[in-house]
Write a structure and sequence with these properties.
The chain contains twelve helices and no strands. It has 379 residues and is mainly alpha-helical.
Length: 379
């Protein structure tokens, strides 16, 4: 007697049917994400400058709006002032960084020589009983090994030169895109929204505006946090007499733009230099300063500056940063958390039951990212 498919399906346990339904949908989602990641990887030289330009536009667009408040200042002039001014400030910072590094390098070298001499003397007097000639031979062998690797270092330098060329091209492309985002970002967004079906256009428009408002809130907050971290850490290093204070302070500032992980890495570098240059006690005091800065950032600055607009669990910070670093290096770690913040605000907005007029949402006002006052769709 033939068995109908409906009878066979009825004999399959409900749990197994649910698991199978979820399983094949999960496979489809993973395949789609993998395909998207493959495409992005192939065109990352285009995607990364666009992402960087969006991030910078969230930081600089409020300045353009402020300059265009007087009616007699055209938007093109305001955009030029902001972009050129930003490039001048960034160039001055890097120039000062290089000058300060070169100025502090001799002092650091002297400290290194003294520290290594102390380590050598300690090893000679330690239970290992390593003789001074043996230690000198060890240093000479390291120098010879470096000299024999000249060809590898040369090929590596050529690879670095190629990478620098790609980075320069990406930077120029990001600046070019940034100019148009600052000058004509509203019309670019309106053009993009017109590609959405009419019945969903307002909802997507509102979600995009709220997502950009969350990005504005994030960039504003992380800039203030980075400046505070750099100021406190730099002051602590200066009081302790650690060399290379200015380069380390700038490093802490830029490292703070990668939440959690950046502070740990740059803090470890500061502790290492303090340990080598000033000894164990100075390194411990630098660790204390870093702990104080971390507590100030986590319990005062971030809740005060971010508020309810950008709410991310620490796990939602560390995992994206690690994933971004594995995929595209430092730039991926830099862009990971802003991407999560944008997706969080946009998806929350898409699930809202009531859709307000899109033009009542100010994308440059961080409070526009909040959606908690509107009831969610569903139970």
């Amino acid at each position: 007697m033939p068995v109908h498919s409906s009878e066979v399906l009825g004999r399959v346990p409900v749990g197994l049917r649910v698991a199978a339904a979820i399983g094949w949908r999960l496979v489809v989602v993973l395949v789609a994400m993998g395909a998207l990641g493959w495409i992005v990887g192939k065109v990352q030289i285009i995607v990364i400058p666009i992402a960087v330009a969006i991030l910078l536009s969230a930081l600089l667009a409020p300045a353009v709006r402020l300059l265009t408040r007087p009616r007699w200042i055209p938007r093109a002039l305001a955009t030029a002032v902001v972009v050129v001014g930003g490039l001048v400030v960034l160039g001055a910072v890097f120039y000062g960084l290089v000058v300060a590094f070169l100025a502090g390098l001799p002092a650091l070298q002297d400290e290194l020589v003294q520290t290594f001499s102390q380590i050598r003397d300690w090893l000679a007097r330690s239970p290992l009983h390593m003789s001074v000639p043996r230690l000198n031979d060890l240093g000479a062998s390291i120098i010879r090994a470096l000299g024999s690797s000249r060809e590898a270092l040369t090929s590596g330098a050529l690879g670095v030169a190629s990478t620098v060329g790609e980075i320069a091209a990406g930077v120029l492309l990001a600046i070019f895109i940034l100019i148009f985002f600052l000058y004509d970002g509203a019309r670019i967004w309106e053009f993009a929204v017109r590609g959405v079906p009419r019945q969903a256009r307002d909802r997507v428009n509102v979600a995009g505006r709220r997502a950009f408002a969350a990005l504005v809130s994030y960039t504003r907050a992380v800039t203030v946090v980075a400046a505070t971290d750099a100021l406190v850490v730099g002051l602590g290093l200066w009081l302790l007499g650690v060399p290379l204070v200015v380069p380390l302070t700038v490093l802490v500032f830029f490292g703070a733009f990668i939440p959690t992980v950046g502070a740990i890495v740059t803090g470890a570098i500061a502790v290492l230099i303090a340990l080598v240059a000033k000894g164990f006690l100075a390194a411990v005091l630098v660790v204390v300063v870093l702990i104080v800065v971390g507590e100030l950032e986590g319990h005062v600055l971030q809740p005060l500056l971010l508020g309810r607009a950008v709410r991310l669990h620490p796990l939602a910070v560390v995992l994206p940063v690690a994933t971004g670093f594995v995929l595209t290096g430092v730039i991926g770690a830099l862009l990971a958390v802003p991407l999560v913040a944008v997706l969080d605000a946009g998806i929350r907005s898409l699930y809202q039951a009531n859709v307000p007029d899109p033009y009542t949402i100010d994308p440059l006002n961080p409070s526009s990212a909040r959606t908690a006052s509107v009831p969610l769709v569903g139970p």
